[in-house]
Design brief:
- The chain has 18 helices and no strands.
- With about 475 residues, the chain is mainly alpha-helical.
Length: about 475
Amino acid sequence: MDLFRKKSISHMLASVQETDKSLNKVLGAKDLTMMGIGCIIGTGIFVLTGVAAAEHAGPALVLSFIFSGLACIFAALCYSEFASSIPISGSAYTYSYVTFGEVMAWILGWALLLEYGLAASAVASGWSGYFQGLLSGFGLKLPLAITSAYDPGKGTFIDVPAITAVLVITFLLSRGLRESTRANNIMVVIKIAVVLLFIVIGIWYVKPGNWTPFMPFGFSGVTTGAASVFFAYLGFDSIASAAEEVKNPQRNMPIGIIYSLTICTILYIIVSFILTGIVPFTELNVKNPVAFALSYINQDWVAGFISLGAIVGITTVLLVMMYGQTRLFYAISRDGLLPKPFSKISEKKQTPVVNTWITCLLVSIFSGLVPLGRLAELTNIGTLFAFMTVSIGILYLRKSKQTSESTGFRVPFVPVIPILAFVFCLYLALQLPKLTWISFVIWLVLGLVVYFLYGRKHSHLNSSK
């Protein structure tokens, strides 16, 4: 059945070498690690930690981060093998084309478009909140109507700062990957320095009494908290989108994925432990919990640095998420499942400039008009779906024996690790609200309509029969 027609790894690698006129191989292991950290540490730690502690987990937030981190580490091992075996743009979409066939690849690609697009929109929305907080510190205030997403009841209609951030990032991405990577690396160093500053200052103000009761909402609160802070780990999979722009991908891709995720997991656990030790969890339901905690202990000078660091940090997340979105559009379009302009490359910049600006338009609409909470939930379910598919895909990859044991990274303890990754991610997905599931199903149905109306007929596999 042609719905499940597959591509072989050898065919994909050969076709990319023949047709790839342009993507520039400039990224090393350090760049990929910095890209991963740049995308992972951001809105999750600077924005969502407070809400997750106050409404779901309490001081057991640290367990929520460990639970989510385990799910991501298992999934990251699976991504690493795929990225090493199939160093081609498109991330999980490309991997599914090899293992499950075209229609599943399209469904996953469509889900990833939701992940990257809405994640970038959610991040832009979070950036707007911190930016406005910084302005208010200087006594400046924007007109209410342009400060947040569409909500006439609160007097807001459009989030202009969020849209401005998206435009600036798009301009940077359209300049070329080398320039974008340099900017990202500088901002990541600033971001890590700010997180370490919080740890060094905050640890002296921890009151163990704030950790009691440790699990006020029970274990179900911990798992619900894990599902909500899962958003904090998004990003390592976007490294896989960079595959065609990496020097020695068999070595560097797994290093970038695993190193970035491990570093961020350790930082998240330490920060959440200190955060709930400084401030009673009931008071953490704020948009800027890390800066709030420092103000709570009268370290306002550090709180100012934290707010500035958060803005820089969230900017790198937006940069990498939008980068991942553009490379996903590029990969799907190159296979014929989306129109050709999405895979058109600028000869001068060696980047897909047209689809970068299309991405800008879509992200601007969502970040300017849709509330942050809804964006984060929809992003989580799209990502978890991708992680589950990639985890099971490893079992198919091994069974098909398309890769050599001597080539690149291999997931240890197969099938245990892939199955654990699938189970952890499925459990987290089941903790998400019913409305999120309904919205996700509607999105997938819409994707199938697009596939049958356009993608199936224009697929390059269809024309090559």
